[in-house]
Structure formats: C-alpha cells, structure tokens
Prior knowledge:
By secondary structure, the chain is mostly helical. It has one domain. Helices cover 64% and strands 4% of the residues. The chain has 9 helices and 2 strands. Strands 1-2 form a two-stranded antiparallel sheet.
Amino acid sequence: MLSMFGSKEDQQRLLNASHTLYDCVYSFVSSSNIIFRILNQYLKTEFASVALKENLSIMENLQLLISALNEMQETVDSKAKDVHQHVSDPLYSKINLTTSSKEERTQLVKEISSIYTGAFSNVCGPIATVLFRHGNLPEKLEYVVQNLANCPVVALRVGDLLMNQGKIAEAVPEPTTSKSPSATLSGERVHGQSVATTAVSLTTLMQRVLQGHSDKNNSLALAANYMEDAAKVLKPISESFQSIVKAAEEYVMLIVEQFQ
C-alpha cells in the first residue's frame, strides 16, 4: 500500500528523520538534567529534573524546557559574575575553551583552585557555572522554536516520532482525503504549570502536510522533507548542548579523580 504514496526511499527518509528528531529532543532533556544535577551538587541549587513528555508535541516539550533553562540561566548569570570578580580575564576565558587538552584543563583547575583557597572541591561549581553561562542554552532553544514556528512537524507528539513501517502505513491518508481533523486539546500539568496541548498524531500530521499540494500520491516524500528540515535545525543545537555538558563533566571527573 505504501508504494501508492511514495517510494521505499521516501519511507526510509521519513523513518530516519523522525528518529533523529526524537534523539534530539531526548538529548535536550537529558543534557539539561545533567546540568541541573551538577549545579545542584556543587552550587547547592534545587533545580527540579525535567521529563520528556511523549504525549506532548515537540514544540511543547521545547517550550517547557526553555522555561526551566531560563530559571537556570538567571542563576548562572549571577554566579558567573562572582567568578569573574575572582579570576583574571584570561583565566576566565580559558574556561570556555571546550577543545582544550587534558593537560591544559589540569593546569586551569590548579590556577583556579589557588584562588578558591586551595579547595579543589570548590572549583567544580565555578567552572560549571561559567561553561553553562556562556553556553546560552535557553537562547539556542528559542532559536529552534522561532525557526520551526511554521513547520507542521513540531506539532507532532514526541511519542509518535518512534514510528515504524506499520505506523506509517496506518497514518498515510487516502488520496481523496481533503479535510484534516483538528487536534484534540488536553491538559497536562508539568512543574506546577497547566499546559494546554495541541499535539497531533502522525495521521493528522500526514494529512496536514498534504494541504495545498495537488499531488496526494507523494505524501511520504512531503512528510520526509518536513522531517528532514526540522532535523537540520535541531541536530546542531543538540550537539552544542552535548558539547557543553561533556566539557563540564570532564572537568568534574578530572577534579574528582586527580585532586581529591
């Protein structure tokens, strides 16, 4: 049946892009939770962990995450200013060099530790603070939201990104389909916020992407194009999140292993 609506190549493109999108959204959430854990441990903050809500849309998950990261950003902005008052400009700038070697990071830790009364355990917080402060993570997610605001894919339920051939076959609309069902509104309470969701199913998404297109027999290609365009926006930002988190984790591991 799928051959009526697109090639096997289009089907594989759709599968690959949808799984990439899921991995990106999952990465945003997991990276943010690592950040919150590091800050809670070394700055004594109390940031709550966030959960990937598979019943909500991609956009809704990103918006909830931006809200949590904005709260984090306010804290690290203030803490980073304190760090900058204690260390020199060159030393402060070195913290943000995520490509520095292990030897360079070790020397940096020694220099900063000498400023913080020689207590290596006190260095994790300042270093992580500066990394997260200049990572501009909320701003990067806001960029994603702005660039994908008119992309129909971001309305898709995150759980539906884990599609397979069977789900695609069920979702592909008949060529005569001309009307798209409206999304069902439901309520979800997350971190004390009441969230009205307009998340749509894969079936609804497939019908939406066909609107305005005369070639109803190429729905897989159209959907794959949208998915791939969205993935191109999310993937580099996801990799940026991971890079910042990796740098912070490497500093923490270095301090724990060599200086404690």
